[in-house]
């Protein structure tokens, strides 16, 4: 008997809506596959493309970003930022040889537990059909740098630039 591929999916969810939709699905005893691992962000607008690329580099077969419906964001318009980043990330993933269907954007309010569960189930099935990611470069798993690149900041005096080393924390800089 052949083993069925079970994808690993990372889900970045908004604290105020989609994380609570997942909670509502659980409270309502709605079933959805356990393949998704949820990571709560305060807002879907907080999603950094690095989070998504690191998830893929560390073995995720797919990533889902979920937040409040457009116009209902607790942080005003941040879900529009998430949407534009999502579109950018899909193009970048396609350029890296990863199927754009491995990245999903879902809008789900706190009261939409059934919708959340249904969409997760559909997404798991979609990723199952795509198969394992197997994202390799020259026989090695592709790696995203673990340390941030040096950042150029304006100094307190406004003209000179200070170079931040990855080991240093960001210092508050007066504009």
Report on this model:
It is a single chain. This protein is α/β, with parallel strands linked by helices. It has 2 domains: about 10-140, Rossmann fold (3-Layer(aba) Sandwich); about 150-175, no CATH class. Helices cover about 30% and strands about 20% of the residues. The chain has helices at about 20-25, 50-55, 80-95, 115-130; strands at about 10-15, 35-40, 60-65, 105, 135, 140, 150-155, 160-165. Strands 2-1-3-4 form a 4-stranded parallel beta sheet, with helices on both faces. Strands 5-6 form a two-stranded antiparallel sheet. Helix 1 (about 20-25) crosses helix 4 (about 115-130). The longest helix has 18 residues, at about 80-95. The chain is globular and about 35 Å long.
Structure described in brief:
This protein has 175 residues and is of the alpha/beta class. The chain folds into two domains: 133 residues, Rossmann fold (3-Layer(aba) Sandwich); 28 residues, no CATH class. It contains four helices and eight strands; from the N terminus they run βαβαβαβαββββ.
Percentage of helical residues? 25-40%
Q: Could you give a short account of the major beta sheet?
A: 4 strands, parallel
Shape: globular
* Class per helix and strand makeup: alpha/beta
Mean model confidence by pLDDT: 82
Strand order in the sheet with the most strands = 2-1-3-4
* Multimeric status of the protein: single chain
Number of helices: 4
Q: Got a strand count?
A: 8
Query: What is the total number of structural domains?
Result: 2
Identify low-pLDDT runs.
137-141, 144-175
Radius of gyration: 19 Å
CATH topology of the largest domain: Rossmann fold
The percentage of residues in β strands lies in 15-25%
Q: How far apart are the termini?
A: 65 Å
- Helices and strands, in N-to-C order? EHEHEHEHEEEE
- Second rung of CATH, namely the architecture of the largest domain: 3-Layer(aba) Sandwich
- Give the C-level CATH assignment of the largest domain: Alpha Beta
């Amino acid at each position: 008997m052949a083993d069925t591929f079970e994808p690993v999916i990372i889900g970045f969810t908004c604290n105020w809506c989609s994380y609570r939709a997942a909670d509502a699905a659980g409270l309502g005893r709605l079933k959805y596959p356990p393949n998704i691992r949820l990571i709560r962000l305060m807002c879907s607008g907080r999603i950094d493309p690095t989070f998504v690329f690191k998830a893929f580099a560390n073995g995720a077969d797919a990533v889902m970003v979920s937040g409040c419906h457009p116009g209902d964001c607790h942080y005003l318009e941040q879900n529009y930022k998430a949407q534009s980043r999502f579109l950018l990330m899909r193009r970048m993933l396609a350029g890296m040889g990863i199927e754009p269907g491995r990245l999903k954007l879902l809008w789900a309010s706190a009261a939409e537990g059934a919708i959340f569960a249904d969409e997760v189930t559909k997404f798991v099935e979609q990723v199952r059909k795509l198969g394992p990611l197997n994202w390799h470069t020259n026989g090695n798993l592709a790696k995203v740098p673990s340390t941030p690149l040096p950042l150029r900041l304006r100094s307190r005096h406004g003209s000179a630039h200070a170079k931040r080393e990855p080991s240093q924390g960001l210092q508050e800089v007066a504009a």
